[in-house]
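Reading a protein record of the kind used here takes little practice once its layout is understood. The reader may check this reading against the record printed directly beneath this paragraph.
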Amino acid sequence: MTKPTIKAYAAFEAKGPLKPFEYEPGELGAFDIEIDVDHCGICHSDISMLDNDWGRAQYPLVAGHEVIGRVSQRGSHVSHLAIGDVVGLGWHSGYCQTCRMCMGGDHNLCAGARATIVKRHGGFAEKVRAQAISAVKLPAGVNAATAGPLLCGGITVYNPLVQYGISPQSRVAVIGVGGLGHMAVMFLRAWGCEVTAFSSNPSKKDELLAMGAHHVLNSTDPMALKQAAGAFDLIISTVNVKLDWTAYVGTLAPKGRLHFVGAVLEPLDIGVFSLMGQQRCISSSPVGSPTVIADMFKFAALHNIEPIVERYSFDQINDAVERVRSGSPRFRVVLSR
């Protein structure tokens, strides 16, 4: 008897082209589902895995962790999802479900959480499997064709709004209005905040204002940073490069927070006195739990928030991957079939 296989696109070496690949997924677990992949976003984390930038890649590697698709199979113990439901699957494909974090609803902080594209195959495929609890049903009003990026970049910038109880009266700035940052601006505007976008490109001002920012500051102008002293209750940094963090701390209001969602590899060079005197703080957070992802989808549907994407077909996957690798998309890339 022939065992079922899943057709996918895999990298066979770091920075190598993606090629057709088939693998046997094995028997479906009692708590698992199989998803027919309709759309899958391409994130910089996919590129980091494909290129083995983090030293965690195992080849052949099927990336893809911004999956939107339909439940085609479900395990015997899965009751909250039905065959045909449109669901999203993000960075995590499973959790231990017994640790303190899982039991408290913070599944995204589970030490045993399984990443969708680490030591397993992800969504650059016809199908993908995952623990049912890690998949979130899309509500009416969310466009399945563009929703993929919400499952990684979107939830990454939405999660701190929930975790830190950001009020609608907060004055919030975003550093880096790209793949993550453009969604942060949209969420913050809908949240009710006064939104400032830091941009190194003055020509983007009209676009950023149309996107939802109330103000745009030139991040390359030291005087602009000085004039913004004490202005922000929260700054969300989406960039992965070293900046003059002390200058940005200076733009925080008393009890203000500089929050990192971009993975800056260099140590942060910040003096304690710049924090202590005004009781400021530094923090960071990962993606959100399934519950917060579900709430984000509802919020996006209510406020018509939709990532700005460039769409490619799955047979154009190498062109799409290179588009993200070069850092030139506007603002995210999604594969569709």
In short: The chain has a mean pLDDT of 96. The longest strand covers residues 32-42. The CA atoms of residues 14 and 50 lie 6 Å apart. The first helix runs from residue 44 to 50.
